[in-house]
Amino acid sequence: MQLVVGRIGRPHGVRGEVTVEVRTDEPERRFAAGASVATDPAGRGPLVIAGSRWHKDILLLSFEGVVGRDAAEELRGTMLVIDSSEVEPSDDPDEFHDHQLIGLAVETVSGEPVGEVTDVLHHGQDLLVVRREGQEEALIPFVKALVPEVDVTAGRLVVDPPEGLL
């Protein structure tokens, strides 16, 4: 499974640098000079990072062979991806990566099926997006009080929703 670690934005300057929307906790590691990064669409890569620097809280990258503003513009919207096998598992048993949660079956503490996790949103508080059969999606705050059990190996997580959440 591919995981997005960044999205290329607009060109910066005239030498081929691009802005990058960072989607990884390890930008210094993922975007180090010399690193090769796969892309989506795949035909635009892989890209080899020639340099990286921060400018006003925005990551700027330059890539080998990408020279000039026009070449940088052609990369706009390209997703920078890694294989999920490259992600180190966390030492914290209560910390999960999004790709581990997406696809898990959701059930209540009483064993009643709720649906399936289709996405994880990060808006101040992590929210699980749960697709439910014949109903609107549910947004469940990903906190221990509401999600007391996550069993990635068994492919399920248990929710203890307050009245009205579902």
Radius of gyration: 19 Å
Whole-number mean pLDDT: 88
Sketch the major β-sheet: 6 strands, antiparallel, barrel
Order of helices and strands: EEHEEEHEHEEEEEE
Describe this entry's structure for a reader.
There is one protein chain. With 166 residues, the protein is mainly beta. It contains 3 helices and 12 strands, in the order ββαβββαβαββββββ. It has a 6-stranded antiparallel β-barrel. It has a 6-stranded mixed sheet with strand order 10-9-8-7-12-11, with no helix packed on it. Strand 7 (105-108) and strand 8 form a beta hairpin. The two termini are 30 Å apart. The mean pLDDT is 88.
Q: What key attributes describe this structure?
A:
6-stranded mixed β-sheet; mainly beta; 166 residues; 6-stranded antiparallel β-barrel; 8% helix; 12 strands
Compact overview of the structure:
The protein is mainly beta and 166 residues long. It has 3 helices and 12 strands, in the order ββαβββαβαββββββ. The two termini are 30 Å apart.
Summarize the SSE layout with pairings:
Elements: E1 2-12, E2 17-22, H1 27-30, E3 36-40, E4 47-55, E5 58-63, H2 69-73, E6 79-83, H3 98-101, E7 105-108, E8 113-123, E9 125-131, E10 138-141, E11 149-151, E12 156-159
Parallel strand pairs: 7-12
Antiparallel strand pairs: 1-2, 1-6, 2-5, 3-4, 3-6, 4-5, 7-8, 8-9, 9-10, 11-12
